[in-house]
Amino acid sequence: MKPTIVLVGRPNVGKSTLFNRLTKTRDALVADQPGLTRDRHYGVGRVGDRDYLVVDTAGFDPVAKDGIMHEMARQAEQAIAEADVLLFLVDGRAGRTPHDEQIAARLRRAGRPVHLVVNKAEGLERAIVSADFHALGLGAPLPVSAAHGDGIKQLVELVLAPFPEDEDVEDAAEKGPKVAIVGRPNVGKSTLVNTLLGEERVIAFDMPGTTRDAIAIPFERGGRPYTLIDTAGLRRRGKVFEAVEKFSVIKTLQAIQESNVVVLVLDAAQDISDQDAHIAGFVLDTGRALVVAVNKWDAVDDYRRERLKEDMARKLGFLSFARFHQISALRAEGINGLLKSVDGAYAAAMANLSTPRLTRTMQAAVAKQAPPRHGSARPKLRYAHQGGMNPPVIVIHGNALENIPNSYVRFLERTFMEAFKLQGTPLRIQFRTAHNPYATKN
Ligand SMILES: Nc1nc2c(ncn2[C@@H]2O[C@H](COP(=O)(O)OP(=O)(O)OP(=O)(O)O)[C@@H](O)[C@H]2O)c(=O)[nH]1
Ligand SMILES: Nc1nc2c(ncn2[C@@H]2O[C@H](COP(=O)(O)OP(=O)(O)OP(=O)(O)O)[C@@H](O)[C@H]2O)c(=O)[nH]1
Q1: Distances (CA, A) of 370 to 378, 396, 432
Q2: ipTM value for the complex
Q3: Which region, left, alpha or beta, applies to residue 199 given φ > 0 means left and ψ of -120 to 50 means alpha?
Q4: Which domains does the chain have, with CATH numbers?
Q5: Cα of 137 from ligand 1 centre, angstroms
Q6: Atom of ligand 1 nearest to the CA of 148
Q7: What is the end-to-end Cα distance of the chain in Å, rounded?
Q8: pLDDT tens digits, 183-198
Q9: CB of 399 closer than 6 A to ligand 1?
Q10: Tell me: the pLDDT tens digits for 106-121?
Q11: What SS3 state is found at 334?
């Protein structure tokens, strides 16, 4: 399970600064993609081998009764309800305020673990800060400086400690791909789930009594096992599954994180929206394999189809690693092709890449196009090996690799993707520079 950390606090205490800190570790792994915009309030982070989801609630005001503040408070309430752990941020320089007390009173009733985090604590006397905020009745305050990065690693380790670690990727492989079907409201997710599950026997239906309702539904198609990771609270009613809750961004992102392969459902009758692009960007950030299902293809004419293709090329160009399928969930058209791509994307995400072949492919790429010189140093790529799966991580060793530009990273990604036929999964390339004083300076 990958825990969801929700940040709460009054305006200006440093939530965005902490959010950036907590999600920054992961960003460094993802080459910037043209056209990719990230949602400012939802991100993924990683410490060691552990992934987590971070949500920044804006402007939480538990007493606002109407207007934009009320709407923001409503969204924050939903995030609190869906959190695994809450970080309540206060401002060590401003001291305890009445607004902090209101929020504390609300959080004491949240039924979730709450950590009281005192931000802007650099240079402050620890004992004085602690005494002031202890009065909020949420346990010992944890001093940090989000701006300077002090205390952040300890904070994350403390917060994640109670959550079990994930099962090994390789151990899980024989159960088949874990698939999350995601998309904004009304694109046809429930219809697709029912089409997938309807024809074949559902092997079992478990509802583990975990802190949140993560539901995994094993099923078979064409003799192959899959596990469906539920998103927006699909519940079984009679023979069919239907959504019983409102669309939830957090549940969507949690399902993406729990999955191996994401099926992003789009509605052919609608233009691509920011929400579609944000979900797609999140999939890229988590490194999950991806197949795009352009649903309701039956309901649109040729003109609309052409227009949609242009729209997708413009707004989702950063998904060039993924296959796109035109389907009709309602008429069960295009489903086998879609699942074939799910299988292909899963195989690519889990592929074993041999060190000699990786190194040969890398050398061939360099021979074709050498990395640009930076100052007096020409980066030297020596050898490559695999550093992880789902997504495949390729670790390249060499000298002066710090300054390799993003465009060259993307060239390497494309080269590996073609050589190893890794369609359907994003790739990560990591550089390890040897700091050998005798390293050749050619
Ligand atoms: N001294 C100090 N200032 C900080 C620290 N973290 C954040 N700040 C400053 O505090 C101010 C508010 O930070 P934000 O991260 O925007 O705060 P926020 O809680 O997201 O604010 P809203 O977006 O209004 O909810 C900015 O001027 C930051 O530079 C810190 O650790 N130390
Ligand atoms: N024409 C057409 N309509 C479809 C198709 N798939 C779904 N729909 C219709 O689109 C509407 C929304 O479908 P749902 O499956 O409930 O969509 P959803 O994404 O689960 O929606 P939320 O539960 O709001 O997240 C329903 O009226 C479906 O009948 C399709 O392939 N073609």
Answers
A1: 9, 14, 18
A2: 0.85
A3: alpha
A4: 4-160 (3.40.50.300), 171-349 (3.40.50.300), 355-433 (3.30.300.20)
A5: 24
A6: 31
A7: 47
A8: 988 899 888 988 888 7
A9: no
A10: 899 888 999 999 999 9
A11: coil
